[in-house]
Amino acid sequence: AGAVRVSLCSSAEPPARCVCYGLGSFGGCAAARLQLAFLLLLLEELRVPPGSCSLFDPAFSALEVAVLQRLGLRLLPDNEEGKHGVEGSATLFYMVHCGKALYNNLLWRNWSAATLSKMVIIGNSFRGMEERLLSRILERDYSYIAKVLKGTEEVALPAHPRYLDTFNDTSIHCFPLQKLQGLAPEVWDCVEEPTYQHCEELEIIRKEDRAEGSDDAAAAAVS
């Protein structure tokens, strides 16, 4: 948590709020419990009140929702598919091991230099995505990740031998305004919403996917 704070020192302003996606079912998964514990440590280290941290994961059970609320955290009411607007507030996005489309959707939703500069993303390494994917696939399917790479400052989360599987390939991503303003003007011209028509494995649960056959589970969680 201290390493994250140090990495944020060059940011214009510290995060005032946090959004967490893809935490997973921490009631039955040890890795998810560790990720939740780290999230709570981060909030304390960065002095973000628990009530200013919102979470969403379709995997949460009614009991897990109750636990999160007991911890003082907020639950997002709907599946935003990662399309959460910063709305002028410096925001930390905690997205460990999320699908690439979720990061891409988040970037699209906040696609301007002024807005992206208010974001910090803790999640899968963007550099790792660039190395593992063919350039044409990255640019076709995850164009906003591809376009923001040169405007990103990325620092790998320090490795710990006990938690290699839990936080492997995890980095802290900042988007300094000066670097973003140095990108070619045409980078900002295209603001088309991603559709992922060519992706065979999307790695996220869409709103319509969740709606099919899950109404009873959703009702239970709300109650």
From TrEMBL:
Recorded family membership: Belongs to the SRR1 family.
Protein name, entry field: SRR1L protein
Source organism of the structure: Urocolius indicus (Red-faced mousebird)
Pfam families assigned to the protein according to its UniProt record, in alphabetical order: SRR1
Recorded superkingdom: Eukaryota
Cellular compartments per GO CC: cytoplasm; nucleus
Domain named SRR1-like: residues: 12-174
